[in-house]
Amino acid sequence: MKAVLLLIALLVSPTAWANSMRVVAMPGSSPLVTFKIVFLTGAASDPAGKPGTANLTAAMLARGGSVKMPYRDIVDAMFPMATSVDHQVDKEMTTFSAVTHVDNLDSFYELFRAMLLEPGWRAEDLKRLRDVAINAIRVNLRGNNDEELGKEVLYNLIYKGHPYGHLNMGTVSSLEKLALDDLKAFYRSQYTQANLILGIAGGYPPAFLDRVKKDFGSLPAGKPAAAKRPAPAPIQGLQLHMVEKNTRSVAISFGFPMDVRRGHPDFLPLLVMQSWLGQHRASGGRLYDRMREARGLNYGDYAYIEYFPNGMFQFEPDPNLVRPQQIFQVWIRPLEPPTAHFGLRLALFELDRMIRHGLTEEEFQRTRSFLSKQVNLLTRTKPAELGYAIDSLYYVIPDFNSYVKTGLAKLTRETVNQAIQKHLQARNMQIVVIASGCQELSKKLLAGEPSPMSYNSPKPGDILQEDKIVQSWKIDLKPENVRIVPVDQVFE
Amino acid sequence: MRTTVALLLFCVLAATAAAQQQKIFPYDYEQHDFSNGMRLITVPTDFPNVVALYIVVQTGSRNEIEPGKTGFAHFFEHMMFRGTKEFPPDKYNSVLKEAGASFNAFTSDDLTAYHTTFSKPDLETILRMEADRFQNLEYAEGVFKTEALAVLGEYNKNSASPMMKISETLRGLAFTTHTYKHTTMGFLEDIKDMPNQYDYSRKFFDRYYRPEYTTLIVAGDVDKAAAKKLVEKYWGPWKRGSYTAPVPAEPPQKEAQKGHIDWPTPTLPWLVLAFRAPAYSDTTKETATLDLITFLGFSENSPLYRKLVLEEQKVDVLRATYQDHIDPYLLTVMTRVKKQEDMDSVREQILSALAGFKDNLVKEEELDKVKRHIRYSFALAMDNSEAIASTLAHYVALRRTPETMNRVFELYSQITPEDVRAVARKYFLESGRTTVTLTGASK
């Protein structure tokens, strides 16, 4: 099935990269050529006091001109090829992706090479891209996407005081101050051969790869990235952070740090847990079944053990969001305000239930079977296959399909339930709520009064019995652990 | 096989002149009609192991002809996951989980599509289970009422973005009679009333979930004869229906329409200009020409985009869409303006760009760039079996055959500067225009 996968790389720990570029090459007969040019740097390397530097630097390369060509001419040249360059910046990884038809390989690559290796650093591009970043924070995230806002606030709070403790896009006040010199300095120090992984797949001629390697060999050698990150501060008790916003419904996310990443012995057991409790955007997860299917509380409810941005727009995770540290997270989709208290209680009740009882043998078998086959779908496109291969290089694991299939085959129900016991808990966590009327909702949550449900149709006895427990489920909140902030201060 | 398709694609795109002689859809598909009216399109691809199944029902919010029933096609899409005697929801989910399948559904104006992507050995299991729910769907009133709340939840999650409100307002103004007047999501008051519409839901199933409305697309690592045999076995007994929806025709728009939305929270202003435009056609040049105009006028390399987005930087979003529809719909230009005081001048510049197509002939060179762009876009999108099936589903909802793609791409290749001018003169009329603006609250 797979194209030949050549990992021209030293398989070493990500904390000790070699000082030379790595290449992930997947030659094949497709008429399309896929590029992923990856630098092991990102928002975690933003200079102190200058959040957003990594993101804006990458935007200047992917959405700005080169030395020879202003951006408008690059756009004009790429338009007939139907190609453009995408960029993605996360904490540890910056990725430039593009797909071109082999007809246009030479002309596209010349533009792409110049964009990444000979950036134009024009003031007009900075002005435009700074506006894009500020509007992405103020309008797209804070104004128009309560769910993503809740998730990003959750990450920021969990990693407060940590290199991960700011939004990848930065803050409005920082973006307003960033100058071309800041971006150039970041480019010089971070865009190095030591940080580089060249990814390429498809029907390119054999000599083409040598040309790419030679071109990117002009980058400074650099030093290996320091991937060791401090542990985030432990969360004491339940912390409630509410964002006051004039909005129709109530968006909730909660979670806590979890030091398990791909390659960790408990990663696959927890992948089974994640899928059973809340497989992303799929029916059949426990939270989805109990909250949406049985009770009609909202549109869906899911669980995560890896960072998964833009979940409301896509069904599958993007690759190249590697992080040596992750969090456990539950995403409750918007609730009607009268049911918000009950909805949060039910999610916490289900988490507690899973920790106490674990999965049954049948649930374990079914979930494992699902994941063993679903992995084929995750890597079914060339960009995904290439992206996962690059991630596997970072995590020092075999190719993702083999890693998941082989690892799952060895699991037992006991190993899954032991991992749940070891890593999950419901006592110390951060809860984020985006709502109108936060003051009133916080009072209810603190008072702990029952929050009974009423339904528009008769419900089975077991649901009604369970409701009696859930409606009084204790959320152990202390007044000093509750904060309410107006939305216009978030990420400002 | 892989090499054959690769070479074929290469040939299709190698040279413009040659490309115009070649079909855009390079796959050796088979189209088969069963005696009950259902159609099967099987597309073997060179992507191994994976199969994508798209079940396209030619029913969408366009079919919501009765007052008070907006949003029902989409709601019904939800109900299709509520199971049968043989496969109740738990079992249905278990089978798909066991297969590692990814599955979902979507509804738009003209179609409802149910799609599943899975590994090759599970083809029979999935065809059988899907045939069962299309023929034997059963759900109790209580389950129906609960699912109506999940639809309300979907409305809620969409409501934080101004896009839904803009779409509701635009359609409300641009249409007086046709069901395109409402969004696929439906009016909030109708969504709130959905729990009371159990009997209507059975009627909806009886009308539209019939073989003559349905096309199966099976794309991927699949054998044509084997797929046909399996589909015949499980879908053959399905009974043909007799209902045709009397969708009311929209009379011509007589005068320009305008609407404004005061958004309750801070956001950047939006300006939307829409023109009445013809229904999808693969036999006349008009729709193909209007498609090309959306690129000529508003793509990233258009003069207006350069000026407003890159040079003056007055707007950060500028795009035009002309979505294929069964009945006449809208060509829409949308822009997000950075400062409210620039809205009038931006509107004038958009109108001036459109007027330019009426007054001047576009350069052949610019037209050729757009033609190359759309052919390469198409080729780049065909990078896996699911994408192939999904692209096909869109066209199948309109004409029930992949040939329509070949015909419409052939039309693109024939469009001349004179065609562009003639179509612009016919459709960019003030009387056919609807303008919607949205401005946010100050802090």
Write up what this structure looks like.
- The complex is a heterodimer of chains A (492) and B (443).
- Chain A is an alpha+beta fold.
- Chain A has helices at residues 53-62, 71-78, 105-117, 123-143, 146-158, 172-177, 180-190, 206-216, 267-278, 286-293, 340-357, 361-378, 382-395, 400-410, 413-423, 438-447, 461-470; strands at 6-8, 22-27, 32-39, 86-89, 94-101, 196-202, 238-244, 250-258, 301-304, 326-335, 429-435, 477-486.
- Chain B is 47% helix and 18% strand.
- Chain B has 17 helices and 11 strands.
- In chain B, the strands form 2 sheets. A 6-stranded mixed β-sheet of chain B has the order 1-2-6-3-5-4, sandwiched between helices. Chain B has a 5-stranded mixed β-sheet with strand order 7-11-8-10-9, sandwiched between helices.
- In chain B, a hairpin with a 5-residue loop joins strand 1 (30-33) and strand 2 (39-44).
- The chains are: A alpha+beta (492), B alpha+beta (443).
Largest interface, and how many residues on either side? Answer: A-B, 83 and 80 residues
Report the end-to-end length of chain A measured between terminal Cα atoms.
48 Å
End-to-end C-alpha gap of chain B = 60 Å
> Largest sheet of chain A, if any?
6 strands, mixed
The total of helices of chain A stands at 17
Secondary structure tally: strands of chain B: 11
Beta-strand residue percentage of chain B:
15-25%
Q: Give the total of domains of chain A.
A: 2
Global outline of chain B: globular
Number of helices in the DSSP assignment of chain B: 17
Compute the average pLDDT of chain B. Answer: 93
Integer count of domains of chain B: 2
What do we call the CATH homologous superfamily of the largest domain in chain A? Answer: Metalloenzyme, LuxS/M16 peptidase-like
Helicity range of chain B:
40-55%
Compute the CA-based radius of gyration of chain A: 24 Å
CATH fold label of the largest domain in chain B: Cytochrome Bc1 Complex, Chain A, domain 1
CATH superfamily of the largest domain in chain B: Metalloenzyme, LuxS/M16 peptidase-like
CATH overall fold name of the largest domain in chain A: Cytochrome Bc1 Complex, Chain A, domain 1
Specify the structural class of chain A: alpha+beta
| Low-confidence regions of chain A | 1-18
